[in-house]
Amino acid sequence: MPTNLQDTTTLHNGVKMPWLGLGVFKVQDGDEVVNAVKAAIKNGYKSIDTAAVYKNEEGVGQGIREAGVPREELFITSKVWNDDQGYETTLAAFDASLERLGLDYLDLYLIHWPGSNKYKETWKALEKLYKDGKVKAIGVSNFHIHHLEDLLEDAEIVPMVNQVEFHPHLAQLELREYCTRKNIQLEAWSPLKQGELLSEPTLEKIAQKYNKSVAQIIIKWDLQSGVVTIPKSIKEHRIVENADVFDFELSEEDMKKIDDLNKDERVGPDPDNFLF
């Protein structure tokens, strides 16, 4: 279990990925994202997660440059959007993301959604980018077990990461077990259910007991469950608060209380019905 913000999990190819990072979904390009990225890095974050479709890669890149931390100390993730799925189009999309970010490599590149039928070609492109050394690790996002099984029939490389919606109302138990078996690191997007969980009574009670915020309790539950997590915020005090989770441990009993809140309820689309 991580004991500080710089602690990492080791992916199955030996690459070290921070357990906690900053997500920038729905963060405006320009000052808003530049300042969020700078605030995170200034306060010890090493991992920043963006995507082509967020339309803020330029700002993320600027924030990284202005933060002044050596590139090799950071872990930068982006994702290929559905319109760019396919072999050649993915290679071009990757180059465009790198250019917008102003970087010469990525630490992690993900297929953003399974979409309908092109993810195997897209994966071949990711395998090439990986073999060419342009990205340190490759993975998927929003893949159900059946998508992963289908992908693995033809894949040379097992995805290192599967980033999915994950929070106390969507505990993804079967998927977690499957990914553990396949040595695929699960990563949570929307860990706070886009804020909906912040007034959940059970979580409020647990938060009082540990003298922490509900957000901190959820993030700690993620980490103790072995799930990498990337809470999004644009406010510096909140970015700092989200990372202030290393001075306590949730008891087994409290972990179970949070596990029991699961109702397989999504705040985002179901990957099976989200074909664009």
TrEMBL record:
GO terms for molecular function: oxidoreductase activity, acting on the CH-OH group of donors, NAD or NADP as acceptor. Keywords: NADP, Oxidoreductase. Residues 21-262 form the NADP-dependent oxidoreductase domain. InterPro entries: AKR, AKR5G, Aldo/ket_reductase_CS, NAD(P)_OxRdtase_dom_sf, NADP_OxRdtase_dom. Coiled coil: none annotated. The active site is at Y54. The record marks K79 as: Lowers pKa of active site Tyr. The keyword rRNA processing does not apply. It holds the Pfam family Aldo_ket_red. Substrate binds at H112. Belongs to the aldo/keto reductase family. This is Aldo/keto reductase. It comes from Radiobacillus deserti. The lineage of its organism: Bacteria, Bacillati, Bacillota, Bacilli, Bacillales.
